[in-house]
């Protein structure tokens, strides 16, 4: 009977702290801005910024030093490419260079003066392409567009030569390309930047807003001395457990809705890849969110005021996104960074979300990441209980010292 009463009291305390934390969240404008405002705004903002997915019609300058029918045909083929647009036709490379430095073009194509003569004489000729390597997306599109146009033109020249020798057009085409390469862009057919990066970035937004928001609440508790009602429960054996679970349940309630919005609804609105079913996503997101919540709660007891979490955690977004392998291959990271990354929920979390949502993988494919997240959840739950107990004991000691004085 005593055990039943103890369990009942534990659940009663849990429900109390659940309600209290909801009150704290919705009475704090700063936390609401982080928990609700940021999560609502960021997906829409990023969605509109990356709406076009692929950079097209990049302006380039073409310097035609040959000025022949052959060079003009190549110029038309360059302009016909979907990747680049022939914006300027300067008379010299120096003029093209000025246009480049003024930002009017992001690439320069130079057709040499001997272009037509070399082609008609059967000699090899060269077309120079200068790409803006300071911005990788521009570089990629200019290089791809110029290479495609020059490659197509070159193939046409070779096929015409073979046909002039009496080779039928089909055979001439086969001789030009005996082994054609057929490429298939798996999971991201449009090769869009947003489809690749957005899901990972939005998962990181969920993590960072949780870490900062819970940190602000913890700092506020200490700053405004709102810990009196924690002490009677927290001082009991196992008393930190209902405190941690009650608060965590409040955060989880809000962030399950946030996660469905950011990773379920917004990808459909902006036509990003969304191949995971809702059950698999929630099943995977549960340990992802819990591990972040418990980590944030453990850290929150260290902040002396509400601003500390913002100051300390804002700079971590860049390292954390590197840890996920989105911006740089995970395999290429140094071993010591990989070791640190294993303790950050977004590392297995983003990896699993991309597999489920972008690749449409079955849940069995993310089982390793899911187990990894549950291990982090258990570890950070234990850590959060320890830090909560430590926080309560220190506040009790402070109160006792104040009373004695």
UniProtKB/TrEMBL annotation:
Source taxon at top rank:
Bacteria
Q: How does it sit in the membrane?
A: Multi-pass membrane protein
Can you tell me where the transmembrane regions are?
A: 29-49, 193-219, 240-266, 278-299, 311-330, 370-388
Instruction: Specify the ABC-2 type transporter transmembrane domain's residue ranges.
Output: 32-385
Keyword entries, A-Z: Cell membrane, Membrane, Transmembrane, Transmembrane helix
A single cellular component GO annotation:
plasma membrane
Q: Which is one GO molecular function term here?
A: ABC-type transporter activity
Q: Where in the cell is it found?
A: Cell membrane
Q: Which residues form the signal peptide?
A: none
User: Which InterPro entries is this protein grouped with?
Assistant: ABC-2_transporter_component, ABC2_TM
Extract the PANTHER family matched here.
Answer: ABC TRANSPORTER PERMEASE, MEMBRANE COMPONENT OF ABC TRANSPORTER YHHJ-RELATED
The protein's name is ABC-2 type transport system permease protein
